[in-house]
Amino acid sequence: xxxxxxxxxxxxxxxxYRALCAGPFAGLVDELVLYDVDAARLTAIxxxxxxxxxxxxxxxxxxxxxxxxxxxxxxxxVFAAIRPGGTAGRIADERVAxxxxxLGQETTGAGGISYALRTIPRMVELAEAMRLHxxxxxxxxxxxxxxxxxxxxxxxxxxxxxxxxxxAGGLVQRAARAAGAPLREGLLDxxxxxxLNHLGWLYRLAPDGPDLLPGLLSDHSALESMEEGRLFGQxxxxxxxxxxxxxLYYYYQTAQATDAIRRQRETRGTSIHQQQSSxxxxxxxxxxAFALWDAARRSREEGYxxxxxxxxxxxxxxxxxxxxxxxVALSVMRALSGGGNSQLILNxxxxxxxSAGGPATAEVAxxxxxADAVVEVPCEVTPDGALPLAQDRPAGPFLTLMQHVxxxxxxxxRAVLDGERETAVRAFAAHPLVxxxxxxxxxxxxxEAAFPELGRLWA
Length: 459
Known about the structure:
Layout: E1 2-6, H1 13-21, E2 31-35, H2 39-51, E3 61-65, H3 68-72, E4 77-80, H4 86-99, H5 110-133, E5 138-141, H6 146-157, E6 161-163, H7 166-178, E7 191-196, E8 199-205, H8 213-217, H9 220-224, H10 227-232, H11 234-240, E9 243-244, H12 249-252, H13 254-263, H14 268-285, H15 289-302, H16 317-320, H17 325-336, E10 342-349, E11 374-382, E12 385-388, H18 396-418, H19 421-430, H20 437-450
Parallel strand pairs: 1-2, 1-4, 2-3, 4-5, 5-6
Antiparallel strand pairs: 7-8, 8-9, 10-11, 11-12
Helix pairs in contact: 2-14, 2-15, 4-5, 4-14, 4-20, 5-6, 5-18, 6-18, 14-15, 18-19, 19-20
C-alpha cells in the first residue's frame, strides 16, 4: 500500500512512521510519501525518520515531495494534517480573540473559526487533486478543526473522507480503565458517545451489560485517576451525569480558562512556535535527530491544556502514553484495507447508520441533528467505509449546544465556499463563546489584518 501524508513535514509524522515499523500496523504500508509545501521541514522530519531506531523487515520506504500531483499518483490512502499559516498563524488565532477579551484557543471558539477560514480552501484543493490523481483513495483527515474540515470535504469526496481525533477515544479508554473494565481493541460494545469534534460526552459505559458510568462518577478516587475527572471535578460530573470531552472545559469554565491563558507568560501557540522555530533547523544538523525530536515531543505533550491545570499538577504518565491520533488513523486504514472490521469514534456524516446487515433502527446516529451534518460518534469501519452507530437522543442542554455549534460550523463552511464575508461575521457572532455581532465583526477584521489572504475569499 502507498500512503501519502499531506503535511509530511509535520511535528507528529514520526509517530505515524514508528507505528508502521513495529506492532499491529507493521507491514501495512510499503511506501510512505511525505508531501509538504515546506522543503526544509521535510528535510528535518526525514532526518528524524532516518535516525529512528527500528526493528524487523517491515520498514516502509520513505519518499519526500513538494509536488502534490507526483505525491498523489498511485496513492491508496491519504492522511492530511496541514496547518496553513504555520505555528505563527496559531499565535494570531489565539491573540486576536484574547485581545478582545475572548477565549483564545486553537480549535474552540473564534480561533477555530479563523483556522477553518484559511484551512478549508487548501483542503478542498487537496480533495479535488485526489479526484484527479487517485480517485479511489481514502482521505483520513486530522487537519483541525477536524469535524468542520471533514464536513466541507464530503461534497467533494463523499464517504471517502473520514475525520479523526484521538481525544474522544482517549476519554473512553481512560474511563473504561478507571471503571475496572478495559475495552478490547477495536470494540466499543456498550459505549454511548455523542457530539461534534472537541464537543462530546460519554454518556454510557456498559461493555458487559450493566452501565458502569454511574458508579465511576460516584467514585472520587477513580475519577481522580483520569484526566477528565481531575479536570472537571466530581461535583460537575455528577451534575452532568456523564463524562465530557476535555475541550468542554472551555465551555463550562470559560472565564477561568481565558484568565489562565492570559496569565501565562505566553500562549500555547507562542510556545510551540518558539520550540519549532529552533527545533527544525537543529534536526537537520543534529547527529541524533530522533532523540532531539522525542525530547521536544514530551515537552510539548506535558504542556497540553496547561491552562486547565491551575494548581501545578502534572499529567500522569498514562495520559502521556503513545497511541494517539496515529493509532486511530492506522486502525481506520487497516479496516478500510480489509484487515478486519473495527469500531472507533470518528467524524462522519450523521446518517445513514450502521445496521449490521439488518433493518436500520434509526435514520441518524444523533437524533436532533441533520443527516448530512458531520458528527463525532462510534462507527463501524469496514472496507466499504465508516458508518455511524445509533446513539441516544442527547438531553436538552447537550443537544442545544451541539445544534448551536453545528450552525456556526455550517456558516463558516458557507462563508468560505460561497465567498460570503457577512456570513463569516455571522459565524463569529453566533458562536456561544462570542455571542455578539459587533464582536464578530471585530474578530473578522482582526483576522483579516493578521491573514491578508482571507480577503481573497470575498473577492
